[in-house]
């Protein structure tokens, strides 16, 4: 068994090196397919970051009456925090709210003067709420509008306008996710089909050779083995090359991506995830190489 | 011992039936040299394809040693084919392997050890007169040399039977004679040889058993036969 396996590997390498042009062309085609596959994965990371960034900007605030004590507010905060839909909460006291307001309007003298003239702090304490899913804000808002909190809460920043805006954002997120899935599925399928065709042609050109191997008593395992090894070599080389080529592309694209998605440092992402991306490319390349070769050879093993 | 018993093989295409072999019965004894002769399409190559399990007969039975050939499962065929050495008109060499590797391949697929391969392959290439061209690829060899490599490959297993299907079809008369002399030597060393050909001159000089086929039927079967067309 071990002898057979080592012979199969030897024959696979022999085929690969002795069919120089065919190997080069097949690797070139698989390389392009893997660039598409790698590009799709990066696109998915980008769209996920962009959507997370949009989702992160959505929140609702609950404003408390002036007379509500801090203890009461913290009690409400702990109730909200315990809701399974709530991702995070942030308490902003009246003083902190004033501080933030002043900081935001420090260049606007009219507002600064108006605040000073009022004398006391006109702002209300609030809790800022972020949900896991934007669709849950409506439910959180209606929970807080209940009688239990009527005496403490002045208002909730979830009116029809903000509801509509959140609704629109939800639709954008859903559509983008669906579009991303369709594009991923389509381009991955394209990469797979292109590779299948390329390897299918290599094996079609070797059909006489397969018949000869069978005639001299080669078993199916021994006949198909070298072609599968060849497919693995194609996949491995194409995967390594495609990852190396993706690197400079990512390097140059990174500043442009940052303009659209400020949270995304593509360069840093690619560097820190280099080996994961490489492994992903290699696994995809090798898997497609093996499956394509096995299916293509099977056709010629029937006699 | 090889027995063809009431073999019928029909090829069907576009609703038409062609009888390639029609109720053919004969036997070949060990160490015999048998020539199958007849025009193109007489059924010679079909008989060979049936013997190595490349095709199945519509009726009848083929016995080869302990094998009931047409009852073999596809996975059992490699084992049968290691007992039969086959030589074809178009040589059927692996183009990306040199002469040594082509011959060694037949042993490698059978899982034989490297030491044995390194010992036997040069010897058999020497027997067919190609020791100096072991490292040449098929495209670097002449037709006669390629056929010698094919014969070496067929013999490397020390098969019970060597089947040669039109082995001289692509060769000039002098090279053809050399190949036939080589087949006779192999036969004298104890291997049964089945030679399928339509080359009259070769058969008439052999003075061995001749089975004449025509339209899928055996017309004549003579111990020291000649190739006489009816």
Rg for CA atoms of chain B? 17 Å
As a percent range, the share of strand residues of chain A is 5-15%
Helix/strand/pairing category of chain B: alpha/beta
Helix content of chain B: 25-40%
Order of helices and strands of chain B: EEEHEEHEHHHEHEHEE
Distance between the termini of chain B: 30 Å
How is the main sheet of chain A built? 4 strands, antiparallel
Outline type of chain B: globular
Count the beta strands of chain A: 4
- Give me the secondary-structure category of chain A: alpha+beta
* Count of all domains of chain B: 1
CATH H-level name of chain B... which superfamily? Answer: P-loop containing nucleotide triphosphate hydrolases
Describe this structure in words.
- The complex is a heterodimer of chains A (303) and B (230).
- Chain A folds into two domains: 2-54 and 169-298, no CATH class; 59-158, 2-Layer Sandwich (Alpha-Beta Plaits).
- Chain A is 74% helix and 7% strand.
- Chain A has eleven helices and four strands, in the order H-H-E-H-E-H-H-E-H-E-H-H-H-H-H.
- Chain A has helices at residues 2-18, 20-57, 70-81, 94-104, 109-118, 137-144, 160-204, 207-215, 220-260, 266-272, 274-298; strands at 60-64, 86-92, 126-131, 153-156.
- In chain A, helix 1 crosses helix 9 (220-260).
- In chain B, helix 6 links the parallel strand 7 and strand 8.
- Chain B has helices at residues 44-51, 77-81, 99-108, 114-127, 143-155, 173-188, 200-206, and strands at 2-13, 16-28, 33-37, 59-64, 67-68, 84-88, 161-165, 192-197, 209-214, 217-222.
- Chain B is built from seven helices and ten strands.
- Chain B has one domain: Rossmann fold, CATH 3.40.50.300.
- The mean pLDDT of chain B is 90.
- The longest helix of chain B has 16 residues, at 173-188.
- Chain B has 230 residues and is of the alpha/beta class.
- In chain B, the strands form two sheets. In chain B, strands 6-7-8-3-9-10 form a six-stranded mixed β-sheet, with helices on both faces.
- Chain B starts with a strand and ends in an 8-residue tail after the last strand.
- The chains are: A alpha+beta (303), B alpha/beta (230).
- The A-B interface holds A 3-4, 7, 14-15, 18-19, 208-209, 211-220, 222, 302-303 and B 52, 54, 74-75, 77-79, 81-82, 86, 92-97, 105-106, 108-111, 113-114, 153, 157.
